[in-house]
Design brief:
The protein is mainly alpha-helical and 242 residues long. It has one domain. The protein is built from eight helices and two strands, in the order βαααααααβα. Strands 1-2 form a two-stranded antiparallel ribbon. The chain is globular.
């Protein structure tokens, strides 16, 4: 599971409440998100083919290679670098890091996705897209302040991470199922919360050290992580193995 939630901080930010600015900002956010999903999908497909699959799995032993482990842990490094270096890294470098992160994530997902039938993966992807879209619209249109719910969801997310680490040793199928159901609820909720948060950020800001372009990129990363994690949770529940 891609559990990383970027925790970037914007300095000297002042809200001035411009709806048009908010729409333009969110358009850029979703552009980055869709672009990242497209890159991940391409790399997941390419490395799921026999020729590139050999780079990840040894044909003789069936064991995963060092390249796969590198692809598994590299996304965490990318996210931490982008999040904590947000105000210090230039926009072009940040963009390159996000593109590289999307590609490596696609590679890391290729083996997992290959365990399921193509039709099943496509069906879950479409379901994820519909659920994500509904919650994104809900987060954008609701007048309810979701801030307090966001704090609760983040606490549940931390709990999921801890429980997942514990279950790596317990190997409990029951606990895994509970984690998955809670995970679906958490990322459904986080989608609405993050969209509302980004809407408020984009509602007209006087930027300090952070530029609008960098903020839109990091917003795209946030929604990308929500989508990917929701997809993985639903795939675990409804995916049909080969």
């Amino acid at each position: 599971m891609e559990n990383n939630k970027p925790n970037y901080v914007y300095d000297n930010v002042i809200q001035i409440g411009d709806a048009d600015a908010s729409r333009k900002f969110l358009a850029n956010v979703f552009l980055w998100m869709f672009g990242a999903l497209a890159i991940s999908a391409v790399f997941a497909y390419v490395f799921g083919t026999d020729d590139f699959r050999r780079l990840l799995v040894d044909e003789n032993t069936g064991q995963v290679s060092g390249v796969y482990y590198l692809a598994m842990f590299a996304p965490l490094i990318f996210v931490l670098t982008m999040s904590y270096g947000f105000n210090r890294i230039s926009y072009p470098v940040l963009a390159v890091l996000f593109i590289a992160y999307s590609a490596v994530t696609g590679i890391s997902l290729s083996l997992l996705i290959s365990l399921f039938s193509p039709g099943s993966v496509l069906g879950v992807f479409m379901t994820t897209s519909i659920v994500f879209g509904i919650m994104a619209i809900a987060g954008y249109t609701t007048r309810q302040d979701l801030t307090k719910f966001g704090s609760i969801l983040i606490m549940f997310l931390i709990g999921i991470v801890v429980a997942s680490l514990v279950n790596m040793f317990l190997h409990s199928s029951g606990l895994d199922l509970v984690i998955t159901y809670i995970g679906v609820a958490v990322f459904v909720g986080l989608t609405a919360y993050d969209v509302q948060k980004l809407k408020n950020i984009g509602a007209g800001l006087v930027y300090g050290d952070a530029t609008a372009s960098k903020m839109a990129l990091m917003g795209g990363l946030t929604l990308y992580l929500d989508f990917i994690n929701l997809f993985l949770m639903l795939l675990r529940l409804f995916g049909r193995r080969r």
